[in-house]
Design a protein that fits this description.
alpha/beta, Four Helix Bundle (Hemerythrin (Met), subunit A), Rossmann fold, 2 domains, eight-stranded mixed beta sheet, about 55% helix, elongated, binds guanosine-5'-triphosphate, binds magnesium ion
Length: about 350
């Protein structure tokens, strides 16, 4: 299929972007928050074995689906071509688009690959591989950044994203990370829309061993955020992490609510939150891009957390996010264990995908 076929398909995909936020995966998960927490914090033999195999091996394992579809496909196409011609570039474009790199980003990437090949006088298709690797790395490098926690405490992190994206799990992983660094952490249960959300965050807080501020279901989420910051100050916490709803009655209500929380946080801090992290689920593909645009209109997103990269063969979405959003990808989720939330390191990421 040529690129026009992909463009048509993409058009169909975008129709879905306007659907209301929400999936019914949520109801399924509400049944047993304890069970979820337990699965994610397994410290049993499996977990120990994973540590022994090393973090890089785990990253590679997490990215294995993308590696074995996208990278393997690129390798096959390069070895099946005797020379570098238009057909090779077209096939490369298809492989990138199928990995969810996105049409615009793919066209830009392939143009760059083409220029680099020309500049270097490369004629052997096998030599295209390192060029592609480098070009992807350059795009990722230009759009990455570390979590920024100011010296002044408490540092406030607000976490936003559609329901099911992985906000609460990411908060638990972050809380665990900060706690192991000796930091005192307090969580704010500002998803008051969904009764089980409060309970779920509480299960995590207990499991990780951090404090939590919660109100009744249906309470004003901005008031929860305010109280959490107050409590964070009063108790000498280093980090305040605020969980927010991923779904309300309507998308507009959700955005207004997030704006309000954002305003209350800024007023209370007399400045910006240290981080407003947008959590997006890699398996939602190009939808991740439209979600990011939507949330960025309501709050000043400072970085993206891309979760569930382990659950998709289309990890190329990270390249589209990096290239198209103008927001740094700060963290990636490659599984459900605590260690599976990683600072996004473009070199390590590309090595895990491309290198033996
Ligand atoms: N495989 C995998 N699963 C993940 C990852 N991150 C989160 N999950 C799972 O995704 C599901 C949804 O995660 P939640 O943290 O509840 O999502 P949420 O954004 O808080 O959802 P709402 O509270 O409904 O808004 C859970 O089953 C998590 O275990 C990841 O990096 N990899
Ligand atoms: Mg949640």
């Amino acid at each position: 299929m040529g690129i026009s076929g992909w463009l048509r398909r993409r058009g169909k995909k975008e129709e879905k972007d306007t659907a209301p936020l929400g999936t019914d995966a949520l109801e399924k998960r509400e049944e047993a928050p304890e069970k979820q927490a337990e699965a994610a914090s397994q410290e049993g033999p499996d977990h120990q074995q994973e540590s022994a195999r090393g973090l890089f091996a785990r990253l590679k394992e997490g990215l294995s689906r993308t590696r074995s579809s996208f990278v393997a496909r690129v390798d096959t196409l390069l070895s099946s071509h005797k020379r570098i011609d238009e057909e090779l570039f077209e096939e490369l474009e298809e492989a990138l688009i199928q990995a969810d790199v996105g049409v615009d980003t793919t066209l830009q990437l392939v143009d760059q690959v083409r220029e680099r090949i020309k500049a270097k006088g490369i004629t052997d298709p096998e030599e295209v591989r390192p060029i592609l690797r480098q070009t992807i790395l350059d795009v990722l490098r230009a759009n990455t950044g570390a979590l920024e926690l100011p010296a002044e405490t408490p540092a406030v992190i607000m976490v936003v994203g559609v329901n099911g994206a992985g906000k609460t799990t990411t908060i638990a992983k972050l809380a665990h990370r900060f706690k192991s660094q000796g930091k005192r952490v307090i969580l704010g249960a500002a998803d008051t829309f969904r009764a089980a959300a409060i309970e779920q965050l509480e299960v995590w807080a207990n499991r990780v061993g951090v404090e939590i501020i919660k109100h009744q279901p249906g309470a004003d989420p901005a008031a929860v955020a305010y109280d959490t910051i107050q409590a964070g100050r009063a108790r000498g916490c280093d980090v305040v992490i605020i969980d927010t709803a991923g779904r309300l009655q309507t998308k507009t209500n959700l955005m207004r609510e997030l704006e309000k929380i954002g305003r209350v946080v800024e007023k209370e801090l007399k400045g910006r939150a240290a981080e407003v992290l947008l959590v997006v689920d890699a398996t939602t593909g190009q939808n991740a891009l439209s979600q990011a645009k939507l949330f960025s209109e309501a709050v000043d997103v400072t970085g993206v957390v891309l979760t569930k990269l382990d659950g998709t063969a289309k990890g190329g979405i990270i390249v589209a996010i990096a290239a198209e959003l103008g927001l740094p990808v700060k963290l990636i989720g490659i599984g459900e264990a605590y260690d599976d939330l990683r600072d996004f390191d473009p070199e390590g990421f590309v090595a895990a995908l491309f290198d033996a």
